[in-house]
Amino acid sequence: MDQEIRKSILHISNFVRPGYQLFLMVCTFSLLLFLSYYRMLQFKVVDPMPTFNKVEVIGAIQRASIDVGFYVRNFLKFDVIENEFLVDSYLWFEYDSDKFTEQEVDGFSFGKASIVFKSKPYRTAAHGRTFVGYDVQVKFPSNIDYHYFPINSHRIYLTLNNLSISADKALFNISPATFIISDTLFTAGWKNFSNEVHSGFKSLSLSKKDVQKKIAFPRIVFAMDFIGTSIRTLFLIFLPLLVIFFISIFTLGLDPKKYYSTILSVAAATITALVSYRFVIENLSPSVSYFMLSDHMFNLILTLNFMVFLIGSVFLQRLEKYRGFIIVLFHVILIIAWTVILYL
Question: What are the b/e assignments for 291-328, b being 16+ CB within 10 Å?
């Protein structure tokens, strides 16, 4: 039994040869690329929704309703990394003329946003109902979570408020049928595939001492789901990391008796290259305070490269017969760790 195991280890030692190593690198890279691309196609909601209160139907206060519609023509700016969005849209309201004034309805605003352009209201009235529409361009950020960067899929939120109307008096009424995204929407590298809309109200406490002192106003939360369709950033970050790792691990196939200094210098150089490339990753990444997927991948490759350096400088001569096994083991560790980080 021991002899069979030893033969197996000696057989796998063929992976010290350049041809075997090249084959192993191609297989590993192809598998990691497939796993990353497959993960990129999966939409996973991690972006937190803006807060709002749903209206309880049972025992609810009798409130008037204002029908609302929102048509998104296009995004004039769609920058996920900088978290800046500029939307060109048409917003409309329909309400009972006897219950609301023009000034009240016109007092709408967007949460954490600035209205870059707002047209004069387009008003029509019939049968006691008033219809008013606005061309609006809104610049806003969203609650974007970058934990999986550069595997990008995000839910972009935009909130519509009206502090001129009390939530005890009226609420917004909107449905998916009146929240429309144009079929000609263009967002380079991103695809809009679904949308949601939620209506309710938002409460603001005006005093820490008096909990009863607060205001409540109607709120709508628009949610637009986008999935990344470009692998450019993914390649720019992960490909150099893998190339540096493959160069490092390739040195384990060299004869330590003849090329010890070469193994040592190349292994050390790859660590230096990784540290230098970290600054490139920082320029490509969003500025956040938590660890992202790109950070975990970098730390993984850095750790593996340090292990290669340690083995190549200290233990390689003692483990000369098992170099092929060590090379394969490093590839297996990389694949398993990569998969775990991607799908956790």
Answer: ebbbbbbbebbbebbebbbebbeeebeeeeebbbbbbb
Spell out the domain ranges in the chain: 2-40+232-343, 64-228
The 10s digit of each residue's pLDDT in 51-62 is 998 876 544 567
| Average pLDDT of the chain, as a whole number | 89
Helices (H), the chain: 2-12, 18-40, 102-105, 232-250, 260-284, 293-310, 323-343
Q: Within a 13 Å sphere around the CA of 315, how many CA atoms are in the beta-carbon half?
A: 9
pLDDT of residue 240: 95
What burial letters (b/e) apply to 89-118, b meaning 16+ CB within 10 Å?
bbbbbbbeeeebeeebbeebebbebeeeee
Report the CATH superfamily, name and number, of domain 64-228. Answer: Neurotransmitter-gated ion-channel ligand-binding domain (2.70.170.10)
Contact (Cβ atoms closer than 8 angstroms) between residue 156 and residue 177: no
Helix (H, G, I), strand (E, B) or coil at 159: strand
User: Other CB atoms closer than 10 Å to residue 209's CB: what's the count?
Assistant: 5
- For the domain spanning 2-40+232-343, the CATH number is 1.20.58
Q: Is the pLDDT of residue 326 over 50?
A: yes
Tell me: pLDDT of 196 over 90.
yes
Identify whether the C-beta of residue 227 lies closer than 8 Å to the C-beta of residue 252.
no
| CA dist., res. 47 & res. 163, Å (int) | 26
- Total Cβ atoms within 10 A of residue 137: 17
Lowest mean pLDDT among 1-15, 160-174, 296-310: 1-15
Does the pLDDT at position 1 exceed 50? no
CA distance 267 to 305: 7
